[in-house]
Amino acid sequence: MTNVTNKAIPTLSAPSKSLGGVVRQIVNQLGVAVASKLVPIATIFLYSRMMGVADYGVLNIFQSYLWIFALVLSLNLHVAIGRYIYLPEAAFESFLGTTLLSVGAVFVVGSIAIMAFAEVTSVTLGLPQLLLPLMLVTVAGQIVESLMTQIAIHDQRGELLLRIVAGKAVVSLSLSLALLLVWGGDKFFAVLLADAFASLILSVVVLVLLRSRIEWTLRPDHLTYMARYALPLVPYMLGLTLLSQFDRVIIDRFYGKEATGLYSLSYNVGVLLLMVVTAVLNAFNPSFFTALNKGDHDRINRDARLIFALALVPTVGIVLFGQQLSSFVLPARYVEGFTLIPIVALGGLCSVVFQIWVRVLAYFHKTATISAITISCAALNIGLNLWLLPLFGWKVAAWTTVVAYFAMTVFCLGVVNVCRLLPPVMPWREALWILSVLVLVLVNMQQPLHDVLRVGVFFVVVWLVRRDLLSLMHREVR
Length: 478
Known about the structure:
Elements: H1 19-36, H2 38-50, H3 53-72, H4 81-84, H5 92-116, H6 118-125, H7 131-155, H8 158-182, H9 187-210, H10 220-230, H11 234-255, H12 257-270, H13 273-294, H14 297-329, H15 341-363, H16 367-392, H17 396-418, H18 428-446, H19 451-464, H20 466-470
């Protein structure tokens, strides 16, 4: 295969290859990550102050179900754009039209079914029936945003994506705050109504922007490609959702919505570092495909070290300072869960290694293997939670997530090496760092480190990975 050129697929603009270009793309993608998580971040720092713990728990349960419904109501077909767009022979306009028509048909049929059995669905989810229409609108917005994100990453138009996602976030946040100030009923409903309205606006804006690039057709060959690539990934996406969200559902069943609220807040703080990783991975995805197309394995390994280093630094920062900073900026009624923040951050670091190398499996269309790995580890996580939560309490859910993410990483690297998709990948250095962070978490849980020592440890870590961090100065996007 050869790399896709701008002549093969019309783009929103010509990408920049300079150092400033790669840094700008990372900054833009980091902005997109922050903007897309603005509502979850607001739930941490704003909404947690404006609603009770039980309302906060309902809000997070609702958000836990969103991506599950996004999978069901799209069959995950839209993610095929992110792979197809890099093919040299891609007929993008007709593929985009086929994607929109097929996903739209699935969404309409699924929505009708959900509303026809609204009462049963509401009882099963443990959510008020009135929230179901809001969920459908919000899910539609997530699907459209995912579609636009894949296209903008290929086109290296991070600034456009940032404006779109940030616009949605600002509308959602502003309307949420306004409604929370005057809302007399359940506070969570005000937030979800605002987010649904913002999702509707985003969907309209994206479809208008893409209208000149859509060829409204339904080509069988595109449907076949879509099905072969995307359908095997449904268990993968479901597994990731279960890993990151379903522990809250189990906690709600065992311990109620207040425990769910406590756990959710701490989890949301601990997982903030993944925004950095998402930004870097998105910025380097074009160069990743280019390197694999050319067989440039050295570049892949260098980029992997860089991405891990960029994830390690904020992880160590959260482990060392997250609990203390949260005590300053978050309501005291959530303090019981703050001890989980370093543990969640450790799990996030384990998942980073998986995210780096799972792209190799996606490149070689081993999507069924990806799904098998993820759903197995999600099942492991659920099984551990069902076994251990009644014995040790709801806080153990953070540790079961660490185990599941570590298992995913091990299985992924095992497949890459056993199938010889690349020269042997042996990230011993990353494994040692993960072990070191684990020790740091355990030590800090037993006896919190002195402030001066925490600062010293942080700067030592930065110094040890300085070469990887500085390698960014010598990189280009493509």
